[in-house]
Amino acid sequence: MALPLLALWIASHGSGPASVAGRARRDPGLAARHPAPPTPPGPFSRALTGPHLQPGSNPRVLPGPVLIADSGNNRLLVVSPRGQILWEFPGPRGLPAGQTFLRPDDAFFSPNGRQIVATEETDAVISLIDVAQHRIVFRYGTPGVPGAGPNQLANPDDAQQLPNGLIFTADILNCRLLLIVPGSHTPARAFGSVAAGCLHAPPRSWGSPNGVFPMTNGDFVVTEINGDWADIMTPGSRIVATFHPPQVLYPSDTNQVRPGVFITADYSSPGQVVMYTPAGRVLWRYQPVGAAALNHPSLALPLPNGDVLINDDWNDRVIVVDPRTNRVVWQYGVTGQPGSTPGLLDIPDGVDLAPPYSLDLAHAAQTGSPRA
User: Fold this and answer.
1) pTM of the model
2) Which domains does the chain have, with CATH numbers?
C-alpha cells in the first residue's frame, strides 16, 4: 500500500543488497546526523523503552511509528522510528482471566486510528483491540476451534476495518472472504465457501486467499496462494482483473503501490519482494542471497519516500529497504536471533504505520465498502 499519486521511483535492481551492519561500517554517523521525526501525541507519545535499532539504521526513512505483530511473542508492539517501544499489547497488566491472545500474524489500525484489528491465524480468531484501553472489545471466532459455521474461522488473515465499520478478512482454509459486523457473530456476507472449492474461480471460489487489501480507486486486491494469483474485485464483487505476481512461489499480501503497480512478498526461503504491473513487467525485485537473504517475508508496504517496509518473519526482524540501492536502511530486531527483550522480535508477521501515517488508512479512506 502507498499514498495515492506516489511516483514510481525505480525501474531496475539498483546496485545490489547490503546489510545494515555493512552500511554502518562505512558511515557510522548516519543515524546521528538524521534524527527521527517527532513522536506524535496520543497513546504513542511516551517511550516505554529504547532506542533499540540495529547499527546503521536511519530513523528518518520512516514517517512515524510502526505497528508490529510479534507473533512468536504473542504481542503487538508500536515502535518509534528511533527504535523505542511506545505501546505494547497485552502489556504489563496482561489479559483478563480466561482470555488468550496467541500468535497475532497481522494487525492494522481502524479508520479512526483508535482500534487495531488483529488476526490470530492459528487460533482461528480475529480481535478488535481498543488502543487507549489496552483491551479486546470484540472477537469473531472461537479461540482454538477452527470451523466454517457462525462465529468460526479457519486461519483468518489480514482482517481490516472498512470506513463503514465492517471488518473484511480472508479466511484461508475456508477458501472465502468474509464481511463481519463488530458485535455480531454471524457473517454479514461471504464471498466463496468450502463447498465451492479452493480453486481459482473468483468470486465464486478462491484458491486459499491469504490477503484482501483496499485500493485507491475503491476496489480490492485479493491474493490467492494456490496458483500464484492476484485478483482485483469491486465492492460489488465483480472481478476486474486476475494476474500472476511474476516468478513468485508463495504469494503473500499483494497490495497496491499506485494505480497500475502492485507489490507482493514471496513467503519462501530464500524469499523476495516483487513490484510489478498486472501485465507481468517487473519494476523491482528484491531477492538478496547468502547472509542477507530474506526468510519467509510475508508483507511489504511502500513508504511515501519510495522505500519499502518489510517484515522478514523467520529472520526475526522488520526492515526498510531502499530500492534505489537495495540496501537495508532501517532495522528493528536482530537477524536470526529470536527473543522477547527490547530490541528483539520472534517471527514478526505483520506491520502497519501508526496514525496519522497508516498507509492502509490512506487507501481505506477512499475505498468502497461491500454491503452486508
Assistant:
1) 0.88
2) 20-364 (2.120.10.30)
